[in-house]
């Protein structure tokens, strides 16, 4: 993996569109195809508003907002009507994307897949209603931009779910659950900063559940259509969750304290797993240092909190738990690489969060000081994890599957977002032609008693997140250039495997795929050539998006 700056990676992973509170990634970004996959209703977290009593602040520190529901509750407002899904081709409508690859046969839904699609659809309805409230009751323009995106994205995704459900014979719910309706009612009573904080808390908790469920479905679903639908959705869910977490920590310094403490709990759990499963001695030493240094960091936060009495989590969050489950599947060099990649992303996000609190965005002088004390170690962890990850070579099947999934996911993004007919058609072909390759990879892995990753590499996630924020010529140039790069790297990897006689199965597979990869690479180059003068300008704008913060 190439060296990535802390700020460029973290800015893209958290998807923040600027250094101030009101910056956002979503303005003018039509057609994103996230699916918000919730299976258990409204999320809960020990540190979230509503989970604990209101937290008193020290006299010199701005108060953390009281728990939702405190005080008098106005009369319950009428429930907003569920917006109709725009018809394809209607003014302002985003054409629905195909929810699963056309090369994957549609089969009758299994019970678990039917429940998954129904919950995802219901969650989308809820997000739309909550976002409608944010448009009128929110205070921050960043929150309103986020809400606008939630309406747009969930409307598109629900159209996809409706299409897939109809094909699979699944009856979708017509309304949200009673629990979800109660949350709409609760937020309807709030305005201004209190609304902004509680709305973003709700979104962070829900999206953690969404991403965790998407990861599990992508890994374990007994329904191939549901599995691919979840796999295609996961990187955008990760982008949206990071944006929500970043925005919430700007609004509520207590969230920064809670998230940093919880991140250390996760780092300790992942490191303990690494001591059991890692084979690289440098990785094992890094893991032990993570246990030692994150234990010390949490001791520091606990001491800081003696005067604050902020609610601190006692366990890791659902997304972090899903990552633990993902890591536990691997062994050998594949585990070592997966573990280090997780650390690259986690420490990039934590470093950016600390630096945001240290800047003018930090609303609490005491929390600002805490962030200043934690930032050097977090940044150091990022640099060390990046260097270690770069020096670990996973198995051919691991890297081939990760690259292939990136090409499928980016292909769907290109097919939907580009306004250039050639780029859009190329994206659709990538998704269509790489999907059967994924099936072959899964069959090979099963025959060799191996497991494949469902997560993108940090660099792939960075590129995906940057492209989600781009549009027009910026998107087209960036998409074609990154596709060329992905395929160049894949061609090098597959050429090496095709010449290695240690495994006849993978050797034959690599040889068979090289012509397809070469054709895709050449087509990307032709697209770049056809874009002409747009390319340099587009790539410069894409780089600016990556380096936003």
Short description:
With 549 residues, the chain is mainly alpha-helical.
What would you say this structure looks like, in words?
With 549 residues, the chain is mainly α. It has two domains: 6-390, Ferritin; 396-449 and 470-546, Ferritin. It has 17 helices and no strands. The radius of gyration is 23 Å and the shape is globular.
Identify the notable features of this structure and list them briefly:
Ferritin; 549 residues; disordered N terminus; 2 domains
Q: What is the CA–CA distance across the termini?
A: 21 Å
DSSP helix fraction = 55-70%
- Strand percent estimate: under 5%
Integer count of domains: 2
Radius of gyration based on Cα positions: 23 Å
User: In this structure, how is the largest beta sheet organized?
Assistant: none
CATH fold name of the largest domain, please?
Ferritin
CATH superfamily of the largest domain: Ferritin, core subunit, four-helix bundle
Low-confidence stretches: 1-44, 50-99
Q: What is the H/E order? A: HHHHHHHHHHHHHHHHH
Q: Number of helical segments?
A: 17
The total count of strands amounts to: 0
Overall geometry comes to globular
Mean pLDDT: 81
Q: Which structural class should the secondary elements be placed in? A: mainly alpha
Q: State the name of the first-level CATH class of the largest domain.
A: Mainly Alpha
CATH architecture assignment of the largest domain? Up-down Bundle
Topology overview:
Elements: H1 6-14, H2 111-137, H3 141-168, H4 178-188, H5 192-220, H6 224-251, H7 253-277, H8 281-304, H9 318-327, H10 332-358, H11 365-390, H12 396-417, H13 421-447, H14 458-469, H15 472-498, H16 504-531, H17 534-546
């Amino acid at each position: 993996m190439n060296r990535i700056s802390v700020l460029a990676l973290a800015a893209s992973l958290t998807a923040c569109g600027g250094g101030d509170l009101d910056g956002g990634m979503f303005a003018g970004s039509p057609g994103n195809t996230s699916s918000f996959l919730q299976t258990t209703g409204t999320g809960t977290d020990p540190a979230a508003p509503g989970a604990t009593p209101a937290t008193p602040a020290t006299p010199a520190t701005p108060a953390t907002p009281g728990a939702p529901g405190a005080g008098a509750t106005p009369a319950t407002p009428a429930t907003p009507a569920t917006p109709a899904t725009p018809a394809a081709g209607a003014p302002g409508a985003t054409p629905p994307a195909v929810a699963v690859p056309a090369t994957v046969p549609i089969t009758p839904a299994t019970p678990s897949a039917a429940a998954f699609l129904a919950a995802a659809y219901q969650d989308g309805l809820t997000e739309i209603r909550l976002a409608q409230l944010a448009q009128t009751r929110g205070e921050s323009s960043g929150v309103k931009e986020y809400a606008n995106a939630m309406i747009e994205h969930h409307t598109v995704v629900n159209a996809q779910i409706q299409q897939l459900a109809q094909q699979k014979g699944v009856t979708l719910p017509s309304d949200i659950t009673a629990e979800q309706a109660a949350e709409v009612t609760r937020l309807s009573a709030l305005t201004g900063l209190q609304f902004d904080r509680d709305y973003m808390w709700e979104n962070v908790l829900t999206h953690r559940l969404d991403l965790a469920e998407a990861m599990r479905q992508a890994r374990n679903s007994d329904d191939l259509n549901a599995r691919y639908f979840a796999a295609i959705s996961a990187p955008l869910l990760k982008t949206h969750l990071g944006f929500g977490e970043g925005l919430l920590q700007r609004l509520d310094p207590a969230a920064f304290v809670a998230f940093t403490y919880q991140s250390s709990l996760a780092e300790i759990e992942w490191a303990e797993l690494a001591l059991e499963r890692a084979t690289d001695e440098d990785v094992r030493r890094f893991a032990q240092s993570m246990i030692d240094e994150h234990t010390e960091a949490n001791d520091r936060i606990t001491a800081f909190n003696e005067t604050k009495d902020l609610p601190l989590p006692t366990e890791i969050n659902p997304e972090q738990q899903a990552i633990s489950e993902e890591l536990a599947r691997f062994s050998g060099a594949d585990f070592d690489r997966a573990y280090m990649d997780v650390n690259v992303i986690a420490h990039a996000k934590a470093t950016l969060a600390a630096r945001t609190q240290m800047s003018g965005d930090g609303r609490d002088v005491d929390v600002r000081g805490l962030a200043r004390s934690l930032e050097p170690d977090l940044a150091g962890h990022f640099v060390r994890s990046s260097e270690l990850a770069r020096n670990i070579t996973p198995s051919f099947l691991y890297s081939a599957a990760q690259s292939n999934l990136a090409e499928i996911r980016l292909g769907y993004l290109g097919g939907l977002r580009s306004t250039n007919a050639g780029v859009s058609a190329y994206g659709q072909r990538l998704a269509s032609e790489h999907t059967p390759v994924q099936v072959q990879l899964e069959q090979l892995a099963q025959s060799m008693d191996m497991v494949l990753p469902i997560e993108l590499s940090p660099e792939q996630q960075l590129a995906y997140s940057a492209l989600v924020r781009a549009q027009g010529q910026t998107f087209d140039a960036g998409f074609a250039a990154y596709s060329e790069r992905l395929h160049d790297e894949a061609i090098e990897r597959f050429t090496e495997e095709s010449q290695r006689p240690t495994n006849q199965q993978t050797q034959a597979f690599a040889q068979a795929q090289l012509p397809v990869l070469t054709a895709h690479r050449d087509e990307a180059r032709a697209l770049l050539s056809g874009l002409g003068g747009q390319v340099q300008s587009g790539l410069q704008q894409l780089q600016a998006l990556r380096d936003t913060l």
